[in-house]
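Problem: given the chain below (346 residues), write out its structure.
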Amino acid sequence: MNKKKKTKMIRIFLALGTLISLYFVPWPILQASLTPLPKTVQEQVNKANDYGFDGIIVYVDQANSIPKFYTSGFHNTEAKIPAKSDALFKIASISKLYTAVAITKLVAKQKLSLDKSFADYFPELDGRIENINQITIRMMVQHRSGIPNYTDTKNYWVQPKETDNERLDLVLDLPANFKPDSDYEYSNTNYLLLSMLIEKVTGEPKFQYIRENILGPLNLKNTYGSVQDVDIKRVMSGYYVGYDKDLKTDDNGVMLATAEDLGIFLRALNDGSLLTKKEQQLYASIYEFEHTGLIPGYQSLAKYDRDTDTVLIQFTNTVDFEGYHWGMSEIMLRRVKKIIKSNLDK
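Solution.
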């Protein structure tokens, strides 16, 4: 086969591959991606219901501009209460950013060592968690421990556990997923154990340490450690597709915050004002500067766009674990980002 025919065949196969992949993409996702961009962020956010969301909150903080809020849909669908920009939202795994910052500060103060094993701090777990005497704190922060993820255990979300000890019990005595530092696998168990470590080293609840050393200096008063600590009316209702219960009262052991509080935190994390220069360098070597969160009823995206120096926070309160609503949530924020950049270019 000559070079010209070979090139033509490759193009045909690529075209066929594209067509096949499009066939398996749900039409609403494809349509949402290909629809022409509206002119304003609010027009885009107003499409939330078309995307399958009961409600949405978007916070945009562009450098040298007053932050803006955009909402659509409902804070509570049953009562037809409109979405509120100052609502509290369960931020799920975004809380890992706060935990990583706390670890960074403790290491900088020489109260922890990233290169010590977790068994050095919790020897009682030797023999209960495989390789625990070889797994360093650094590996746990970076999800390179091989410790199984407790939320991946069978039917976890059907009846979630209420305490960290109950969650940890789900993975004790299980085989490791891989040898320490030989691979990467996201595991909530890493951060559950890191939270326990923070409490052991500081002698106080983790959220108290976060409040004193992270939230306080930033004057953030709308971030909380548990749904038990807030006026439940302030919490945006959460919904899981096919399940008719409002999930806002469920205590998943996660932090809550307003979009503004989370946005201020993310800005400070990225511009260096949260950490000292030494801490910033240390943090950059171990963890990331943006995150996402997902639990039943609550999807959250906390992103920083360096090209436009913009912090973007998006909360959506309708979830399924099949990936459809997550995909639509990412499309929504991606389009918001494009509109912002388009308006800047004018």
